[in-house]
Specification:
By secondary structure, the protein is an all-alpha fold. The protein has seven helices and no strands.
């Protein structure tokens, strides 16, 4: 399954660690594509049917399992090493904002999870609350990935040494993307929808 939907890519500089930068950028492309197909699915649907709720539940679980617990820690191993590199005030803002937005995105994801629970329970006003929260999440996540690719990743490529990159790589867990790589059965609805959306493009 090919990664799609990039919001931009960060070029990996020869001699540093293109492997980690490539991995992070692929993660971004894959998540961006999922967000695109989610947005399209919501726009095309006049109402939240059972299939869409299953899809939303799968997507939120995926974000919790992979982007939040694997991808973000990858980036944080990079930011931890950047803080001691004599950053300018502007560069320090880039690093600190990355950490802050990771916390914000985690909270926004949890809010979407509660929204889906409310929708399943058919609570009053659940749908408009959900739509508002989805729009906020999409805006925050897309801006976050775009800023990382345009600011954080180039900064890391410029300032981190080979020794830094070796440490980052050494701490990498033996974890695969549960949708795009290991293709776990519990994400079958999400995988099928992503494949169909990719084929249609």
């Amino acid at each position: 399954m090919a990664p799609e939907g990039s919001s931009g890519t960060a070029g990996a500089k020869s001699g540093s660690s293109p492997t980690m930068m490539d991995r992070l950028t692929v993660d971004h492309r894959r998540l961006a594509f999922m967000l695109d197909v989610l947005e399209t699915r919501l726009a095309d649907s006049g109402e939240l049917d059972a299939d869409l709720l299953v899809l939303l539940d799968c997507l939120i679980d995926y974000i919790r399992e992979y982007p939040q617990t694997v991808h973000h820690p990858r980036e944080e191993r990079i930011t931890e090493r950047l803080v001691d590199k004599g950053l300018t005030p502007g560069e320090r803002v880039v690093v600190e904002l990355t950490m802050t937005q990771h916390v914000d995105l985690s909270a926004a994801t949890d809010k979407l999870g509660r929204d889906v629970t409310a929708l399943l329970a058919r609570e009053a006003d659940a749908m408009p609350v959900f739509v508002t929260d989805v729009r906020r999440y999409l805006e925050l996540q897309r801006e976050h990935m775009r800023r990382e690719e345009q600011q954080l990743f180039p900064l890391a490529m410029r300032l981190l040494t080979d020794a830094d990159w070796n440490e980052v790589e050494a701490a990498e867990p033996n974890t695969t993307d549960p949708v795009y790589e290991s293709r776990q059965d519990r994400y079958r609805a999400l995988m099928d929808y992503v494949v169909d959306a990719h084929t249609a493009r």
